[in-house]
Design a protein that fits this description.
By secondary structure, the chain is of the alpha/beta class. The chain contains 12 helices and 14 strands. It has an 8-stranded mixed β-sheet, sandwiched between helices. It has a 4-stranded antiparallel β-sheet with strand order 10-11-14-13. The longest helix is centred in the C-terminal third of the chain and has 26 residues. It is globular and about 70 Å long.
Length: about 400
């Protein structure tokens, strides 16, 4: 018999595990995973980049290197950050194994059991999974159409010791909402005033299909109380497993020391290949292609939801990102609805609320499915919801 798992690792299956399980079900239309469109991966360009860098790189390509990651790629990212009005040097950047590892590392660096952690309600299930191991005290801050309710957040900051504030300001996962500029400025100031660190998770920034882009919260950070996380997963490929943290130099130094106990560094081969891709290829042109395709998919999903969902249901109308958030009448449970669904999968919303676990919401992904699948899947969802509503009403 094996020894028991540590208590922190003995929890039930996370919402993140459920997400991948639902996404892999055969013979169903999957609205559940946050998958990019595989047909849009720049396969040929990435293949050329890998081949060229493997041919031309110095022998130490295959050696241990800086835990922060490839210097040339960090310089490119620093230039990008500066274009977003962020004061940033290469020493303030560390590459990670996707944005997910960045969340995990920051949680490991700052959280002791019981420490205060403010998150949006709802929020990203992967972040919850990363935080749960450290057994924080969660403060669930309601989401509004222009971002988290900062009045509620400030009330919690005034009465509780909160170390970390986790937010997704652009096309939030799962709601698709965007934080206003006024709230971005105020949140940066609140973090400074109450000695908290904002974890700004921003993987969808470049995937805006309408409206005007807004500066990151980090652009308004004058005290080092914001750590910005980004990723190539949604704009190049998830398989590259390359994300990053931009933060105050002292935080990056502490993260680098902590990182040595995890995996030492991101793979040099992958980072140099990405650097080669960015040298030889226009990432801007590639992102424009993504925007055109995803904009059409989003418009199709919104039109189909309007057409097929019962009037009692409501849904967000994002201007970018990967997701649409659906709210059912109070009497319906999205988890039970999923159990009845034979042809369509989605992510029930209860696992995305750390405290309230509201049951009458679900998240739909539109980027990883075809236009025909969107239309058929939304029609099936509408039929499923109408049947469930009739059962509740009777």
């Amino acid at each position: 018999m094996l020894p028991k798992n540590a208590f922190r690792n003995s929890q039930k299956s996370s919402g993140l595990a459920d997400l991948f399980s639902l996404s892999d079900q055969a013979n169903t239309i999957s609205f559940s995973g946050g998958y990019p469109d595989a047909a849009l991966f720049p396969k040929k360009e990435l293949q050329k980049a890998f081949q060229k860098r493997l041919t031309t790189a110095a022998p130490d390509l295959f050696q241990y290197r800086s835990v922060l990651g490839d210097l040339n790629l960090r310089q490119k990212l620093a230039n990008y950050a500066q274009s977003l009005q962020i004061e940033c040097s290469t020493e303030q950047i560390m590459f990670t194994q996707g944005g997910q590892q960045a969340i995990k590392l920051l949680a490991s660096l700052f959280l002791n059991a019981g420490d205060g952690l403010a998150v949006e309600g709802p929020t990203y299930v992967g972040a919850i999974a990363a935080f749960n191991e450290y057994q924080p005290t969660y403060y669930e801050i309601p989401m509004e159409a222009d971002g988290m309710n900062l009045d509620v957040l400030e009330e919690q900051l005034q009465t509780n010791q909160i170390k970390l504030i986790y937010t997704i300001p652009n096309f939030q996962n799962p709601t698709g909402y965007c934080m206003s500029i006024a709230k971005r400025k105020r949140l940066a100031q609140l973090a400074a005033d109450y000695n908290a660190l904002v974890i700004e998770d921003d993987p969808y920034r470049e995937l805006r299909y309408a409206g005007q882009a807004m500066p990151p919260i980090k652009a308004f950070d004058k005290t080092g109380n914001v750590a910005l996380i980004g990723s190539f997963s949604k704009i190049l490929s998830p398989a590259l497993r390359t994300g990053w943290v931009i933060a105050k130099r002292s935080i990056i130094n502490d993260l680098a020391n902590l990182r040595l106990a995890f995996d030492c560094q991101s793979p040099n081969v992958v980072l140099e290949a990405i650097d080669q891709y960015l040298t030889d290829t226009s990432l801007t042109d590639h992102i424009q292609q993504l925007r055109r395709s995803y904009q059409q998919k989003l418009a199709t999903m919104l039109a189909c939801l309007q057409k097929y969902l019962p009037d009692e249901c409501h849904f967000s109308k994002p201007q970018g990102g990967f997701f649409v958030w659906v709210t059912l009448p109070a009497g319906l449970d999205a988890q039970k609805l999923l159990q009845l669904s034979k042809k369509v999968t989605f992510l029930p919303g209860s696992s995305m609320f750390v405290n309230s676990h509201e049951e009458n919401h679900l998240r739909l992904n539109f980027t990883g499915v075809s236009l025909d699948e969107i239309q058929y899947g939304c029609q099936e969802l509408g039929n499923l919801m109408r049947t469930a509503l009739l059962t509740v009403q009777n």
